[in-house]
Specification:
Elements: H1 7-23, H2 26-42, H3 44-51, H4 57-67, H5 73-84, H6 91-105, E1 108-115, H7 121-135, E2 138-145, E3 152-157, E4 160-165, H8 166-179
Parallel strand pairs: 1-2
Antiparallel strand pairs: 1-3, 3-4
Length: about 190
C-alpha cells in the first residue's frame, strides 16, 4: 500500500505516529483515523463540506470538532493540523500510512492475496503461516477472488508484489513470442 500513499501524507502520518507512540495511544488513534476516513468516504455531504474551498475554516473546524468530539485529542489535533495546512484531502492517505505504521509496531504484515477461485480457510491459514515464518511477522491475509488471473495467485504486501498467476505467465510468453526475432531465412 505504501507505494500508493501520497508522500506529503507520510510526513503527517509519521508525526502523528511519533506523538501517539510517545503517549502510548497508537491503537486508539489508528482506530479513530480509520473510522473517520471511512465515515467521510461514506458521507458525500460531509466530504463536500470539508473540501469546499468557499466554506470558511472556522466552519470546517466546527464540523471536525463535532465529528471528533469523543475522539482522542491526538486524533482531533492531527486532523485539525491537516485542515489548518489545507491538506485535509490527504486524510485517507494519512490514515492508511498510520495504519501501516501501527501494524509494523505490532509486527503484523497485512497481505492482499488474489486467486482465481475461492480459497478455503485452511489453505489461507497455511499460506499465512508460511508468510509468517518467512518474514518473522504475523501475516493477516485479505483474500480476494479475480477469475481474470486464470490460476495461481498474486500476493501484495507493503509495496511488494509477487505475481505467480497464470495470466502473468501467459503474458510473459506472449511478450517473448512478439519480441523474439525470427531466424534469417525462416518461413514463419
Amino acid at each position: 500500500m505504501a507505494e500508493r500513499i501520497e508522500r506529503a501524507a507520510l510526513v503527517y502520518a509519521r508525526a502523528l505516529h511519533a506523538a501517539a507512540v510517545e503517549a502510548g495511544r497508537v491503537a486508539q488513534v489508528n482506530a479513530e483515523l480509520t473510522e473517520l476516513a471511512q465515515a467521510i468516504a461514506r458521507d458525500d455531504r460531509l466530504l463536500r463540506a470539508l473540501l469546499n474551498p468557499s466554506l470558511p475554516d472556522e466552519a470546517k473546524h466546527r464540523i471536525v470538532l463535532s465529528v471528533l468530539r469523543e475522539a482522542d485529542p491526538l486524533t482531533r489535533n492531527g486532523v485539525l493540523v491537516l485542515l489548518d495546512n489545507g491538506r485535509l484531502s490527504l486524510l485517507s492517505d494519512v490514515a492508511a500510512a498510520f495504519a501501516e505504521m501501527a501494524a509494523e509496531d505490532e509486527r503484523v504484515l497485512h497481505v492482499e492475496m488474489t486467486t482465481a477461485i475461492e480459497v478455503d480457510a485452511d489453505r489461507i491459514e497455511r499460506i499465512s503461516n508460511q508468510i509468517s515464518e518467512a518474514t518473522g511477522l504475523r501475516a493477516q491475509i485479505n483474500a480476494q477472488v479475480d477469475p481474470n488471473i486464470i490460476g495461481g495467485l498474486v500476493i501484495r504486501a507493503r509495496g511488494v508484489l509477487l505475481d505467480a498467476s497464470v495470466k502473468r505467465e501467459l503474458d510473459d510468453i506472449r511478450r517473448v513470442m512478439i519480441t523474439t526475432p525470427l531466424p534469417v531465412g525462416s518461413e514463419a
